[in-house]
Design a protein that fits this description.
Chain lengths: 252, 684
């Protein structure tokens, strides 16, 4: 199905070309096509087990696809994983922080792994600390933080390299109102700065508030994609929740 | 509770027992290891590797000569006896005699009369407890003396019908003349290997699990993997952490335990003489021995733990590994097992025995080098496997479900990288060493070529075939023919390499380590050169090694190295591996220098053939010079001859001048190999 491109002049930042992944007999991701441009926020919705995490991991270069290609800023994530990882911020339920390090030590460590040193690292750490309101607990160990504070520190880790691409897997899950707002503001600022953001969520209101386009992943396939309005219009439903349920039933 | 029904604890007990016995890992740990592995290791160890017990001949001296009846008992085939007359202070004379004897027996001038009458022959037995087998020798002498005394008593009293307790024909008091520090070191040598091995194994256990399965469970491993860091850096960083924590914790345990025992012994009445002599050189040697134990143990633990899905899974996986690591304890606990060249090459066992040999002043530099080389080779192989486990995503993400498939991890083709090169070098070293045992059954003229083929051509060939989907084997091994310039360069370099490069390096090795002529003489005798015709000699020891070593080092290892390093680094690294493979401090410099020239030739001509020509000519020059002039001709060649050789080398490089060091052909034919898996860069 075709959907209007938000801004054809912007470069493609995240592309999935027939991306497929199988776990033994289970087809987790089935020939997924995606094209997300710079400055665009794309929301990936779908029930549990739809293949969202697997798809995002392949796009982030931490999992190899069985078929198809994942491109970040035109570079293949399987062939150039280090370049791709250096140019994207990835956060998922599986990317926890080291509990025995303080937030400051965490930022220093991951900044070092990104190749940041000295004043550059200091400046970037300061920027993400300001952006995500980490000042109060910079010296605390991660395992002493609340889940919301921990998620903000983790976002800071993902934003640290000032990456042009962000892939966030359910970044607001189980967060309180304040931490959730921090995350949503961070996504809005990323969009304003021209970054491409791909994020998955179960919170429909969040997707409606943030996303330029939404993709619905059902049983490993993109069952529908477009703006919220175009999806509701095209499928003649009243809400995104209704649409997901109907697509899920249709997929059997 | 129902009548007749088993109690709850009994039900639970039965279920747990059944559950435990149905766990295959438990069965392996409980049954396979103790019932199969240990007996096999012991049988194999004692039959194949333990030094055969030489008959224990105890050399005894007596001041003054013992009564003839006693002396006769010490003149059997198991003893050598010598009577000497007193000369100065008794203990000083005994210490002097102990230089050439194992036991000295001293008595007074009237001892013989006492022995003949109804008196007592009071003997003082001097021995050096810091020597190997000192106590066994002392016990043997005491046993004989007691038997003689008993026979004497019976004979003297039987006639009178008196009980044998009526007289004491002989008393015996033993004194050790050993310096208390040497005795202390000797005792330490008996317990230190066991302590070090045990504590390091235990100390590596937790960090290995925490940094792999623990990270998987805490979901921090995926975070690390999302950073732009090559897998090899992740593995190496984690390995060094396990090695450091394991070694330091192990050493701390040993030190604190040792210090506590030392204090306790000092405060006991018998411990006032306890002392150790730990010179800086000895401490360095001991630390190297500790590294040789910790390096492979840390790699093995890290590998096993990285297969685990969770902390709990890791502890079950690591238990058999721990038992395997502790296997050499059986050896080190036996005071009769001594470090020899066979043991030195066995990982862990060699290092544990090295600790003892160092403290007993029995270790040689070559043994130390061999132990370290063996540990390095095994560690390289293990790290290679660990890196492959880390590259398997199941090993990284699967906290539930199936574990990473070790078979697929081990048997999928490796990458063209320094890690694979290190693993190949390690394999060559290990196979070379053990295939070298063939020379105990076959003459060197057959054993050497067979060993070369088994250790070098076979692994290089298997690797080339394994990698055939990534790079054509002919290209990988550099089997393409060179230009005429390449052949000519090979000819000149071959003519001059021994005289111009290896000979000056041999002089330097002689200057640094001494006794090069003896090494050459031993090698010549080992190869049986004097009994061979020139053709057989050149075929077996010049041409075959040339082909085999060039295929392995300038072919496969060089081919793997230029996959990820610069050509210059590849040339240097393969030369170092080539030098190390020759397994001797004397031969390292000449062979590494030759390897450097051969590597440059490979890089400039893109082919191994000129190198084979050079290598064959070099070896042939060496053999024929040895045949014609002996060792004096080999190493006593005057400087002008060396300069002439250097001229040949120089001319070879003049021929190749302008030919760039290249690996372009190699790179271009590597479909499927990541072209720019390059250093991390700043994001943004």
């Amino acid at each position: 199905m075709s959907t209007p491109d938000p801004d054809i002049s912007r470069r493609p930042a995240i592309e999935a070309l027939g991306l497929t992944r199988r776990y033994d007999d289970h087809l987790a991701v089935d020939r997924v096509e995606l094209n997300i441009r710079e400055g665009e926020v794309y929301g990936l919705l779908g029930p549990n087990g739809a293949g969202k995490t697997t798809l995002l991991r392949m796009l982030a270069g931490v999992l190899k696809p069985d078929a198809g290609r994942a491109l970040i800023l035109g570079r293949d994530a399987s062939l150039e994983p280090l370049w791709v990882k250096a140019h994207l911020g990835f956060l998922s339920g599986d990317t926890a922080l080291y509990g025995r390090l303080t937030v400051k030590e965490t930022l220093d460590y991951f900044g070092g792994l990104l190749g940041l040193r000295g004043p550059t690292l200091e400046a970037r750490a300061q920027a993400v600390t300001d952006e995500l309101g980490l000042h109060e607990f910079l010296g605390q160990r991660v395992h002493d933080l609340s889940s919301g504070q921990r998620q903000r520190a983790n976002l800071a880790r993902a934003f640290l390299g000032d990456p042009p691409v962000l892939i966030l897997d359910e970044p607001t899950v189980a967060l309180d109102v304040i931490s959730g707002a921090f995350v949503r503001d961070a996504v809005k600022r990323a969009k304003a700065a021209g970054r491409a953001v791909l994020f998955s969520t179960h919170i429909m209101s969040e997707a409606e508030e943030l996303c330029d386009r939404i993709g619905l992943l059902v049983r490993g396939r993109i069952a529908a994609t477009g703006t919220k309005e175009s999806l509701l219009r095209e499928h003649q439903v009243g809400s995104l929740t209704e649409l997901i349920l109907s697509l899920h039933e249709r997929a059997g | 509770m129902r009548d007749g029904a088993p109690r709850a604890w009994a039900l639970i007990y039965r279920k747990e027992l059944k559950d435990t016995l149905r766990d295959r890992r438990t069965l392996t740990t409980m049954l396979l290891v103790p019932m199969v592995l240990y007996p096999l290791a012991l049988v194999f160890g004692s039959e194949a590797l333990l030094p055969k017990d030489e008959p224990l001949v105890v050399r005894v001296a007596a001041i003054p000569p013992l009564p003839s009846e006693v002396a006769a008992a010490l003149q059997t085939q198991n003893f050598s006896y010598r009577g000497v007359f007193p000369d100065g202070e008794e203990r000083a004379q005994a210490e002097q005699l102990l230089v050439r004897h194992d036991v000295v027996l001293a008595s007074t001038a009237t001892g013989a009369q006492a022995w003949a009458g109804l008196g007592t022959l009071a003997l003082r037995l001097y021995f050096d407890e810091s020597r190997p087998r000192a106590y066994a020798q002392k016990d043997r002498v005491e046993e004989v003396l007691r038997a003689v005394a008993e026979a004497n008593t019976v004979r003297r009293l039987a006639a009178h019908g008196l009980p044998t307790s009526a007289i004491t024909p002989m008393t015996l008091r033993a004194h050790s003349v050993a310096k208390k520090e040497r005795s202390g070191n000797r005792m330490l040598g008996l317990i230190l290997p066991t302590l070090v091995l045990t504590f390091i194994a235990i100390s590596c256990f937790y960090p290995a699990v925490d940094l792999t399965a623990g990270e998987k469970e805490r979901k921090t491993l995926a975070t690390l993997l999302s950073a732009p860091v090559p897998i090899r850096d992740i593995v190496f960083g984690k390995y060094l952490a396990v090695l450091t924590v394991g070694s330091l914790a192990g050493l701390l345990n040993v030190t604190v335990l040792g210090a506590t025992v030392y204090r306790l012994m000092l405060s006991s009445p018998k411990g006032d003489g306890l002392a150790f002599e730990l010179s800086p050189l000895l401490v360095i040697g001991l630390l190297l021995g500790v590294v040789a134990i910790a390096a492979p143990v840390a790699a093995l633990m890290l590998g096993a733990a990285s297969l685990a899905r969770s902390f709990r899974d890791a502890s079950t996986l690591l238990t058999p590994v721990l038992l395997l690591v502790l296997l050499p304890l059986g050896l080190t606990m036996s005071p009769d097992t001594r470090l020899n060249f066979q043991w030195a090459a066995v990982p862990l066992a060699g290092a544990a025995l090295l600790l003892r040999a160092l403290l007993h002043e029995e270790a040689t530099l070559s043994q130390l080098v061999l132990v370290m080389a063996s540990a390095a080779a095994v560690t390289a192989l293990l790290l290679f496997v660990v890196a492959r486990i880390f590259a398997d995503e199941r090993a990284l993400f699967s906290t539930e479900g199936r574990r990473a498939d070790l078979r697929s991890v081990l048997f999928s083709p490796p990458s063209l990288s320094p890690a694979t090169a290190a693993a190949l070098a390690g394999t060559i070293f290990v196979v070379h060493y053990y295939a070298g045992a063939l020379s105990t059954w076959w003459p060197a003229v057959i054993a050497v070529p067979v060993t070369q083929v088994l250790a070098q051509v076979v692994p290089a060939g298997i690797l080339a075939r394994w990698l055939r989907h990534r790079i054509e084997p002919r290209l990988f091994l550099g089997l393409g023919l060179p230009s005429w310039r390449g052949w000519m360069a090979g000819l000149f370099l071959g003519a001059g390499a021994w005289l111009g490069l290896s000979l000056p390096a041999a002089w330097l090795a002689d200057f640094l380590f001494g006794d090069l002529s003896a090494v050459a003489r031993d090698l010549s005798a080992e190869l049986g050169l004097s009994e061979l015709g020139p053709v057989a000699m050149v075929l077996a020891f010049a041409l075959t090694p040339a082909i085999c070593e060039e295929l392995a080092f300038r072919g496969a290892i060089y081919g793997l190295l230029i996959g990820r390093t610069t050509v210059r680094s590849a040339v240097v690294l393969q030369a170092l591996a080539f030098g190390a493979m020759h397994g001797s401090v004397h031969r390292f410099l000449p062979t590494a220098l030759l390897g450097l020239a051969l590597g440059t030739l490979r890089a400039k001509t893109g082919s191994v053939w000129p190198g084979i020509l050079v290598h064959a000519l070099t070896n042939a020059t060496l053999l024929l010079l040895d045949r014609a002039y002996g060792e004096s001709g080999l190493f006593g060649s005057p400087t002008p001859v060396a300069l002439l050789g250097l001229l040949g080398v120089g001319w070879a490089f003049v021929l190749l001048r302008g030919t760039p060091l290249n690996n372009s052909s190699h790179q271009s034919d590597r479909p499927g190999v990541t072209p720019t898996e390059s250093p991390r860069g700043n994001a943004g």
